[in-house]
Amino acid sequence: MNASKTILVIGTYDTKDPELNYVADCIRKLGGNVISMDVSVLGDPAHPTDISKHDVAAAVGKTIDDAVSTGDENHAMQIMAAGASVLCAKLHAQGQIHGMIVLGGTMGTDLALDCARALPIGVPKYVVSTIAFSPLIAPHRLSADIQMILWAGGLFGLNDICKATLSQAAGAVYGSALAVEAPDPDRPVIGMMSFGSSALKYMVHLRQPLIDRGFSVAVFHGTGMGGMAMESLAEQGYFAAVLELAVAEIGNLMVGSVVNAGANRMTAACRLGTPMIAAPAFGDMIDFATWQPVPERFRDRPYYAHNRLIASASLSGEERRELAREVARRLNQSKGPVHFVLPTKGVHAWDVEGMPAHDPDALADMVDEYRKVMIDPIELSVLDCHINDLAFSEKVLEVIDRWIADGTIKMTR
To answer: Among 48, 121, 285, 328, which has the minimal tally of Cβ within 10 Å of its Cβ?
Structure first.
């Protein structure tokens, strides 16, 4: 039988005491334990919490008076967010908590995002928020495995609707703490960016050989949220190497598509010097929501509706050159080794002859530009093949084997 788990319950107990205590009671009824953390500034809870607002401010060398004296609720809450994040990490490192749940509106959600990023992957992180799934939440603020639920009807006071939400969230965070299989802390991880196997075959070719070499392989879907998750983990130094083999999220960002992972995409691994192999998969198309009108500038382009959620339009030759230059700009910032593998005959299944994105002239422009911009210290391999050919994946494995042999890729964490 699973041992009881302890959940950290965070919120402004001066204004949301009944709601927070309701969540705590739900967790206790399930057999769990609770540590309560108050992140209020002005008011006080009806009953003392396990971690007071004074404790939270003190965790970053501040006092509640310091927060109040800012005269600005944003700055005051940032003090509390910093302190709460420090305490989250400390409590987890000491084995005192097994998950976290935060309740809030915009203020509480802002703080919750910082707290979630302070905890490693595999630790349940639940946010009950009045702005869950809102475009107000910047992609780079989200931790890789954060869970959110909309706090419907929960702005002020308990009611039947918000009880349904809060009890679900309490059950979810506690159930997750009981069920989670945490990642092996000693096994090296490779992060790989890709799309579905109908469009890109390299993940099929690469996954098992990488596992056979001793890696755990995490493949991310390059539709904005996937890139956000990969970037979040790269920032934590989670990967032994990254395979940035698909660049669509960078192109989407450049043309203003909502299908992007934020301005910091493909930068964390560069800052940390994580070994990186890159390639231009889907470096010739941009994505947008199928349920919205086709953006005017792309209405005369080849168009592919993947499903009722996402569609893609082709980039011109010059736009592909521009994307190549932007990818090179990001990769050139790397403090570690970068190897770019450039297939000359195509970069996904839809650009071959007979498919809607087939454009040999624009492909030639893209290949030409990558040849120009991928210069020292970036190592460039040009292959006379399509990205879905086995030869592409074999080249990636060749580089990985060389990096394992010379110690560039560390096989222990």
So the answer is: 48
Q: How far apart are CA 66 and CA 111, in angstroms?
A: 17
Contact 148, 104 (CB under 8 A): no
Between CA 195 and CA 200 the distance in angstroms is 6
Reported as a single tens digit per residue, the pLDDT across 217-266 is: 999 999 888 998 899 899 989 999 999 999 999 999 998 888 888 889 99
Q: Minimal CA–CA distance to 179: which of 370, 367, 21, 3?
A: 3
Residue 353 reports pLDDT greater than 80: yes
What's the distance, CA 374 to chain centroid?
Answer: 26
Q: How many residues does the chain have?
A: 413
Neighbour-count burial of 291, counting CB atoms closer than 10 A to its CB (0-12 exposed, 13-18 middle, 19+ buried): exposed
Look-up of token digits 């009881």: 4
Residues 6 or more apart in contact with residue 364 via CB below 8 angstroms = 317
Q: Report d(CA 73, CA 121) in Å as an integer.
A: 30
186 near 413, Cβ under 8 Å? Answer: yes
Task: Classify residue 111 as exposed, middle or buried by CB count within 10 Å of its CB (0-12, 13-18, 19+).
Answer: buried
pLDDT band of residue 302 (cuts 50, 70, 90) is confident
Is-contact 100 24, C-beta < 8 A?
Answer: no
Q: Using an 8 Å Cβ cutoff, are 336 and 272 in contact?
A: yes
For range 88-110, the mean pLDDT: 96
DSSP state of 396: H
What are phi and psi for residue 193, nearest 5 degrees? -95, 135
pLDDT at 2: 61
Task: Give the pLDDT confidence score for residue 1 in this predicted structure.
Answer: 45
Name the average pLDDT for the chain: 93
Contact 17, 45 (CB under 8 A): yes
Instruction: List, in order, residues 6 or more apart from 179 with CB less than 8 Å away.
Output: none
Q: Is the pLDDT of residue 272 over 70?
A: yes
The residues that bridge with 218 in the sheet, in sequence order, are: 191
Buried b (16+ CB within 10 A) or exposed e, 203-236: bebbbebbeebebebbbbebbbbbbbbbbbbbbe
Residue type, 320: R
Q: How many CB atoms lie within 10 A of CB 171?
A: 15
